Amino acid sequence: MLITGTTRPTGRRRLLQGAAVGAAALVTGCQSAERGGSAARGPSGPSREERLRRQARTDAEELLRRYDATIAAHPALAARLTPLRAEAAAHVAALGERGKGGKGGTQDAKGSASPSPSPTPPAAPVVPAEPGEARTELAAAARRAAEAHARTLADAPGELARLLASVSAAGTVHAYLLSKGAAG
Questions:
Q1: Helix or strand run (H / E) with residue 106
Q2: pLDDT tens across 89-98, in order?
Q3: Alpha helical stretches, state H, the chain
């Protein structure tokens, strides 16, 4: 049986596209830092970097909540999802490391990041009852988070841009791995 690249455009091609976006963003971030891309703190609020970091952390926390909800709803998937969930927790922690706007999360004994207390806790994500559908939905969430991080890159200063490029590329890989597992 002959399989051509036009039969299934996902997989390696999508992974390579994600890596290309990450590499382009990394270059953009470096150029932004060389031009003095970090904006000063305004008199009434956080700096641009802090706002971008906070938004990226919020996106990463949402993905982490989706991993947690999926693992809770489908314990049989835990062995496969736990390593990816641990990476998502590391992304949340990394996005919260610098600046006042990024701090506020805590880590538990397992090294899992937990979000800062907020006035209204976010609603728990809805997880499909079928494990395959749950993984497909989790893959879509990972892809959306990776795309959000990639969009933020153009405005981010050098160090944050490099971090976002890395997190975006990892999210693209997560989406690929989850999609591949859902199909097979």
A1: strand 106-107
A2: 999 999 987 5
A3: 12-34, 48-73, 78-95, 131-152, 158-183
Integer Cα distance of 77 and 126 in angstroms = 16
CA–CA separation, 100 and 174 (whole Å): 29
Per-residue pLDDT of 97-154, as tens digits, reads 754 444 444 344 344 444 455 557 678 889 999 999 999 999 999 999 999 999 998 8
CA separation, residue 90 to residues 22, 106, 154 (Å): 18, 12, 23
Q: Per residue in 30-61, is it b (16+ CB within 10 Å) or e — as a string? A: bebbeeebbeeeeeeebbbbbbbbbebbebbb
Beta carbons of 65 and 57 less than 8 angstroms apart: no
